[in-house]
Write a structure and sequence with these properties.
The strands form 15 sheets. The protein has a four-stranded mixed beta sheet, with no helix packed on it. The protein is mainly β and 492 residues long.
Length: 492
């Protein structure tokens, strides 16, 4: 399942998630247009994608002529907006979290043509949403979002919101309507759980291409599905011309990863193995896609799913196995299958190999670990049908010192629960180490650290909390063994 693969990719430094929405030109599209007046169009076959920090994507572009013939594009220049990362050839590597637009440009018949698709780079949540990224046109119908939570908590429903409803709006059931050209982000919140309970779906709405091609848009229905191994699902595809009129077309179906799901010549999917992939339908060089998430029959859940550990310190993780009900998606606790193994993946680069784990799940951060770096701890058994569990581990800095004589309490002025927006800026905490009479102890300093630096970082010397991503973090203020905790809720 995607939750594990994204966690395994998080061998990166702390990141800041930013989202935005801005109007795009009406002639920007996923099949061509843009600059130049040549009748050929450029198509990014890879489509809309969402990924984790640390993952990479190899993008593919083709040139489609007026007869619908597609040929691999040459001399393509690739770029990404919002400084999200960089390209090496056609391979994109993100450098921070957020949403943006991938642009491909090529010169054909002396004219520069371009194509665009959205991309999102986000920390993983405890549930999944398909499709996880969308490129669509106005007047092309709606797309429903499907959410699946395989966890031990109770989700009481999902809440949906758009960063710009004038571009793409979403109703209470998760159905997205595309209103005008532009880009925005749909936020999906799992109600009833508090940890990592948001998923972000980047959306790019484009204008209908005007080039005289046999097909300018292919729509695959549904746009995203969740299946269990062995399940089948019949997809349908429709082709449209520049007048947004459906036309007769022959579709070629393909799977991006046949080890996850296969598709036959009629568009019927068969789920084969755990994971996430894309099924595409192509007609006259134009491609539409359906995102497929193959769910596990049995899953392992690691607790806690995200934690910060100081250099040289240790933290105990636990793992439990659950059977997944294929109808309700509910989990039932089962005996852990034999052969449970704990692992912290290594990279071979000393600066990134920051932690070890023993056979019981006790993670010890190396004393040389650099604050802000992260890795994952994985619990798995030798079975292709059981999804491994994983948790994100970050290096924190919580130097409480030996303790100042006379300190009996940490006094915090104001609430110990802080609600702040991601763009709200740093928050200064008014706190002091005090004695039994509640008086400040002269010379007593406070240590400060966060248990979730993906949500909130700290500046201990200035007693400042710095929002870094949506979610909840526990901030600890301490002097020796005396401490107090502040809960920080960061929203968009």
């Amino acid at each position: 399942m995607r939750r594990l693969t994204t966690l395994l990719a998080l061998l990166v430094m702390g990141v800041i998630l930013t989202v935005g929405c801005k109007k795009k030109n009406d002639d920007d599209n996923n099949g061509g247009g843009g600059s130049g007046s040549t009748s050929s169009v450029l198509v990014i076959k890879t489509g809309a994608r969402s990924m984790a920090p640390g993952e990479t994507i190899a993008y593919e572009a083709v040139v489609v002529d007026t007869k619908g013939n597609a040929t691999p594009a040459t001399g393509v220049t690739w770029s990404v907006s919002n400084s999200l990362g960089s390209f090496s050839g056609n391979t994109f590597t993100p450098s921070q979290s957020g949403n943006g637009v991938i642009t491909a440009s090529a010169t054909v018949d002396g004219k520069v043509i371009s194509a665009k698709v959205p991309v999102g780079i986000y920390l993983p949540a405890v549930f999944t949403v398909v499709p996880s990224a969308i490129v669509w046109t106005t007047n092309a119908g709606t797309i429903p979002l499907t959410s699946v939570y395989l966890g031990t908590g109770t989700v009481s429903g999902y809440t949906y919101s758009s960063s710009d409803a004038s571009v793409a709006s979403v109703d209470g059931s998760g159905t997205v309507t595309f209103n005008k050209a532009g880009e925005c982000v749909i936020t999906v919140t799992a109600n009833g759980i508090s940890e990592n309970n948001k998923v972000y779906v980047p959306v790019l709405v484009v204008g209908m291409p005007s080039e005289p091609l046999p097909v300018v848009r292919v729509a695959v229905n549904p746009a995203g599905v969740d299946l269990f191994r062995g399940d089948t699902k019949a997809l349908t595809a429709k082709a449209f011309n520049s007048a947004n009129t459906e036309v007769t077309a022959t579709f070629t179906w393909a799977s991006a990863d046949a080890s996850v799901a296969t598709v036959d010549a009629n568009g019927t999917i068969t789920a084969v193995g755990l994971g996430n992939t894309y099924i595409t339908a192509t007609a006259s060089g134009i491609t539409g896609q359906c995102e497929v998430n193959v769910l596990p029959d049995t899953t392992i859940i690691v607790t806690p799913i995200m934690a910060s550990i100081s250099a040289g310190a240790s933290k105990q993780f636990t793992a439990k196995a659950y059977k997944v009900d294929k109808t309700t998606k509910a989990l039932s606790l089962i005996t852990m299958p034999a052969g449970l193994t704990w692992e912290v993946p290594t990279t071979g680069v000393p600066i990134f190999d920051i932690a070890n784990v023993n056979s019981t799940g006790l993670v010890t951060m190396k004393s040389s670990a650099t604050v802000g770096l992260s890795t994952v701890v994985v619990a798995h058994v030798s079975s292709p049908t059981i999804e491994a569990g994983a948790a994100l581990v970050m290096v924190s800095d919580c130097d409480c010192g030996a303790g100042t004589p006379g300190v009996t309490n940490i006094k915090v002025t104001g609430s110990t629960t802080i609600n702040v927006s991601l763009m709200g800026g740093p928050v200064v905490i008014d706190a002091q180490a005090v004695d039994a009479s509640n008086m400040p102890v002269v010379g007593a300093t406070l240590g400060m650290c966060s248990d979730n630096m993906a949500v909130a970082n700290v500046n201990a010397s200035a007693l400042t909390i710095i929002p870094s991503g949506p979610g909840t973090a526990i901030i600890t203020l301490c002097n020796g063994s005396t401490s107090v905790q502040i809960t920080v809720n960061v929203t968009l």
